[in-house]
Amino acid sequence: MENTTIVAAFLGLLEGLTEFIPVSSTGHILLAGHFLGFDSAGKTFEVVIQLGAVLAILTLYSARLIAVFSAAPSDPQARRFIWSVLLAFLPAVVIGVMAHGFIKEVLFETPMLIAVMLILGGIVLVFVDRIAPEPKHDDAMKLPIPMAIKIGFIQCLAMIPGVSRSGATIVGALMLGASKRAAAEFSFFLSMPTMAGAFAYDLYKNRDVLDTSAMGEIAVGFVMAFISAVVVVKWLLDYVSRNGYAMFGWWRIVVGSLALVFLISGF
């Protein structure tokens, strides 16, 4: 039990550290769980602890979100921002519900696929960081609604573990003309309904396989995810504004390559 709690704490820390950077938190957690022998019922642990990271974003952006929702009745720009996030969220709802079983029972159980997607996503990130067009949009709260919807569809690629939800949305936003900082921030905003929805739906689908011990592990992972996500979000925006995303692409390539080596070797 003690060892399981330590592993759950480590995986929660890993979730918070990787959720909002474009390296695929789910990919990292599933691979780490595979190599550490950690297996949660219905892979619910891996999804539910993401709520800790969501609450970190809500905490850090609470003042801005309260201001936006308070202004919405009289401010068209505030209403447009809210609609842009909700409409960008919808494609993930439809595809996530339709493909939930396949995603959890097949894709989440294929470590080799995750490792390959980490590598491919890393290559894409390195190149996009170099070739992204000159940014036209510097404010994540003022992205055009059609652009936000396109980012929402691109986010659905992250249904494949190893792709990265933040990576897909950031790459999509960069290629559609968002600045590096605006791309990261819109990814933050879009993560709130997306991850909260995934948490609620997954908890509902797996309500019959959860037990008391699983809830204890989830609680530990949740707290660690929250704490580490707060640290990462505070650091990330300034970092990418100055340095871009190439470092995360190379990180993905290294981690994915190491995972492939271990998997091929029979670990």
UniProtKB/TrEMBL annotation:
One GO term (biological process): cell wall organization
GO MF annotation terms: undecaprenyl-diphosphatase activity
Catalyzed chemical reaction(s): di-trans,octa-cis-undecaprenyl diphosphate + H2O = di-trans,octa-cis-undecaprenyl phosphate + phosphate + H(+)
Membrane protein topology class: Multi-pass membrane protein
EC number: 3.6.1.27
Residues passing through the membrane, by range: 48-69, 81-100, 112-132, 182-204, 216-237, 249-266
Family per similarity comment: Belongs to the UppP family.
NCBIfam families: PRK00281.1-2, PRK00281.1-4, undec_PP_bacA
Name this polypeptide is given: Undecaprenyl-diphosphatase
Lineage, highest ranks first: Bacteria, Pseudomonadati, Pseudomonadota, Alphaproteobacteria, Rhodobacterales
Gene that produces this protein: uppP
